[in-house]
Each structure stands twice: as structure tokens, then as C-alpha cells.
Amino acid sequence: MRVTFWGAAQTVTGSMHHVEAAGKRFLLDCGLYQGRRRDAFERNSHFPFPVSSIDGVILSHAHIDHSGNLPTLVHNGYSGPIYTTPATIDLCRPMLADSAFLQQKDVEFCNRRREHRRSKGLDDRECDPLYLLEDAEKVNPLFCPVELGQYKEVAPGFRYRTYEAGHMLGATSMVIEADGVRLAFSGDVGRKHLPILRDPVTPDPVDYLIMESTYGDRFHKPVADVADTLADVVNRTAGRGGKIIVPCFAVGRTQQLVMILHQLIHAQRIPSIPIFVDSPLAVNATEVFRKHPECYDEETAKFLSEGDDPFGFSRLRYIRDVNESKALNDLHGPFLVLSASGMCEGGRILHHLRNTIEDSRNTILITGFQAEYTLGRKIVNRDREVPIFGEPMQLRAEVVSLDALSGHADQGELIEWMRPMASHLKKVFLVHGELAQGAALAEVIRKEFHIDVQQPSRGHSFLLT
Ligand SMILES: [Zn+2]
User: Fold this and answer.
1) C-alpha 391 to ligand 1 mean position (Å)
2) Ligand 1 mean position to 167 CA, how many Å?
3) On the chain, which terminus has fewer CB atoms closer than 10 Å, C or N?
């Protein structure tokens, strides 16, 4: 078996690993690389292997950094199967369509700026979107549902089985068996006790492990503290008449926060301020969450069985319409808006940030990992000046990070997750983490389990025997 790391190698986005075994070639994930615009376009638009050589794709979960380049693959002629769980398939439909929409918007914006530059006699060419809605829609018929825990033979002598990842609805880790080698791929590993989701499950013993390392150098606060922090932020900001702007992934994080806010209002721990979910994707994704109660943990299943709607309550409004979204700009605080994208790279969140970021009464609540070079990262770093729609703006709003709700295990949790399989492992490959995070985790793994650890760079290839 040969594995080549083509994405999420010493970085956190663009997950894509090439596995060659039993005479076939499969991709584990086909994610969108996010970063500097020009680099990202180059990397996403050109595959480092002939697309026609790929026999199948095995997808760990629906997040765009794992699934978001599937439309480019299909645009380049791929028409083979894409294996994943039923919930992931249902989430991918709206998420890939939304991704196409965001890219179209982004290109329109860039081209307007370029037109302006050209009008001044500067040479600047137009650019095209990475893919269109029609490419995203062509992905849908290729999905092949594989239930959690089921063995699936994807080619003669090449099979795989999935395990609960506890990271997002439908997300899995997996074990691949081919050429007499057992290789585990963690996908993204979640945390115990996250709202809605079941806890992550460690796969059975394997020879090799590809593991994520997003938070390989960090320890999160306990999940139980999330409700307390959220209550403090809402009370403090509402007390000064401010607005709370929450850039968050439309899928997963939004539904978790909605459920916690529901519980806080119910317990009268926060005032009953208006709460808006301003994202058409979040609205669509919430419908997918409602459709897949088989993925819920016990607490959420119980909530549902008691007749409560975990994702709806009287102070909450879901907004699809763009005019309703714009109307929020004229609304005075206090209120709370959840909007995408989670790293502030596009979407309606940009309008909300533009309208609130320069007022110190407001709070920007960051709820997930912010990749290098993104606007979200600049906000978390509390840069004094940040660019929004290409214009410099003063960051005066309070910034709060709510790491505990991270969908990713921290260093201690990753070590505990891999512990049951550690004694059999020949080698661990750390992916989906910046170099420093991976290095910190690698050191702990070497010390704790005495296993060889690699942090493959892009294109790095290994023969597994
Ligand atoms: Zn993920």
C-alpha cells in the first residue's frame, strides 16, 4: 500500500490523501484548500495526479476542507463513486452548493476591484470561479451511502469500515484494509460531551495511523464551561446594549450553539434577547440535522422524545432572505446573530462585522479554529486594523474565543483517543495541523508510546508494508 499526502499536510485545510493498494487508487477526502487567494486557486484547480486514474473517493465528513474540492474533481472528468455516510451525503448537497455560491461571489468582488485597477491603466486580468453550481450538483449522483460501522468492499481486496468521530453530524474515522495492511484515518476527531453528537470511538488496532493534529499543542477548557462562558458574554454585552456577532460554521457549530442558547434562556440564565440565525445554509443544514436523529447523543434524543425541538424556540429566527439579513444592520442591540462563514472569509458575516466591529459595545464571539491568513485569524489575534471588503477597519469590539466548543480534540484528548490502538502501531502520520501543532503532538506521542511519527509535507509519499 502506498500513501501520498496531497493536502492538509503541515496545514489545516485541503484534506486529501492518495491511497494506492490492490491495484486501485483512492482518495481519502477531497477538501478545499483555504488560504491566500492566489495560492488557494492554484492549488485547488490543479490536481497533482491524473484525475482519470482515481477509482474512488472515501469521504470522512462534510466539512468543506474535506469535501469542498469534489466539484473540481468532477469538473475535471471524475465520475466514479464517492463513499460516505447518509448524513454526510445529505449535508454535502447544500454545503457544496453554498461553496459554489461563495466562490462566485468572491470572484465577482475581485473582478470589480480588478476593473477599477484596469481603469487606472494597471494590468490586472479577470479571474474565474473555481467551480460553478452546476459542478457542485454533478457531485450528488456519485454519492454511495455506507452506514456507520458497516464493512464496505470498494474494490476486490480493498475494504474499509467507519467509526463514530464525534466531530460533526455523519463524521467518521475509518480503517482501510488492503494488501495485508491495516491503515486508520482519523478524519477529524471530536470531543466527548459535545452537544448533539455522540462521543468519538477509537478504531480497532491497525498497523498505521493518519491522525489530525489541529490542536496538537493545546488543551481546551471542559465542554461544560461553554454554557457559562456563553452566558457571561451574552449578559455582559446585552448589559451595555451591544450586539453579539458570532461567525460560525453554518453546519454543526450553529446547531450546537442554538441548542445551548435554548437551554440558557429556558433556565433564565440570559435575558430573552432576539437571536438570529442568518445563513441560508444554516437553515438548510438544520433541516438535515432534524432528518438524522440516528446520529444524536442520548441527551439530544431525549430532548426530542420529550417533544422539544432542539433547534427551535420562540426568541429564535431563521433568516433565508437577503433583505431580512440587511434589515438587521438597522436594528439596535442587544441581540445576537449567528452567521457564516466561520473563518470570516465570505458570506453574510462580513456585512455584520462591517457594521459592528468599530463599536466597543459589541462583541465578536469566535467559536472555532481560524486558519492562517483568514480574517477570522486577524480578529482572534486582535489586530488593531483588519480588512473587510478590502477596506481597513478599526477593531474596537470585544473579541472572545470559545475554544471549548471546538469540534476538534485537544492534545490530551488525541493521545487518549489513540491509546487503545497504540501498542500495534508501526508509524503515525500527523496531518491537518500547522507545523508547530503537529510537532508538539509528535513529541508527546514519541515519549508516551515510543512510535515513529511523521509530519508529511505536501507530496510526501510512503510505502506501507
Ligand atoms: Zn471537520
Assistant:
1) 30
2) 7
3) C
* 124 has a pLDDT exceeding 80: no
Going from the Cα of 431 to the center of ligand 1, the distance in angstroms, rounded, reads: 13
Distance, CA 61 to ligand 1 centroid (Å)? Answer: 7
Q: Quick one: 306 and 422 in the same domain? A: no
Assess whether 392 and 428 both reside in one domain. no
Same domain, 268 and 289: yes
Distance 64 CA to ligand 1 centre (A): 8
Mean pLDDT across the chain: 93
CA of 73 to the centre of ligand 1 (A): 20
Residue 138 shares a structural domain with residue 277: no
Q: How far is the CA of 300 from the centre of ligand 1 (A)?
A: 21
Q: Binning pLDDT at 50, 70 and 90, where does residue 250 land?
A: confident
Same domain, 125 and 200: yes
Q: What single string gives the DSSP state of each residue in 277-338?
A: EE-HHHHHHHHHHHH-GGGB-HHHHHHHHTT--TT--TTEEEE--HHHHHHGGG--SSEEEE
Q: Residue 322 Cα, ligand 1 centroid: separation in angstroms?
A: 27
342 CA distance to ligand 1 middle (Å): 12
Cα-to-centroid distance, 63 and ligand 1 (Å): 5
Residue 369 is placed in which grid cell?
A: 479554529
Sorted by sequence, the CB contacts under 8 Å of residue 243 that are 6+ apart come out as 237, 333, 334, 335, 336, 337, 356, 361, 362, 363
Out of 5-9, 109-113, 335-339, pick the least confident: 109-113
What's the gap in Å between 387 CA and the centre of ligand 1? 26
pTM: 0.88
What is the chain's percent helix, strand, coil content, to nearest 5? 35, 20, 40
Q: How far is the CA of 190 from the centre of ligand 1 (A)?
A: 9
Tens digit of each residue's pLDDT (9 = 90 or more) over 160-174:
999 999 999 999 999
- Indicate if 391 and 431 belong to the same structural domain: no
Same domain? For 387 and 426 the reply is no
> What percentage of residues in the chain have a pLDDT greater than 90?
76
CA 55 to chain centroid? 26
Q: Which of 223-227, 324-328, 333-337 has the lowest mean pLDDT?
A: 223-227
CATH code, domain with 199: 3.60.15.10
pLDDT at position 164 is 98
Residue 307 and residue 186 in one domain? no
Lowest mean pLDDT, pick from 118-127, 173-182, 209-218, 372-381: 118-127
- Count of the separate structural domains present in the chain: 2
CA of 238 to the centre of ligand 1 (A): 32
Distance 215 CA to ligand 1 centre (A): 13
363-381 exposure pattern, b = at least 16 Cβ within 10 A, e = fewer: bbbbbbbbbebbbbbbbbe
User: Of 373, 403, 433, which marks where a domain is finished?
Assistant: 403
Containing structural domain, residue 42 = 2-218+410-463
What tens digit of pLDDT does each residue of 252-263 get?
899 999 989 988
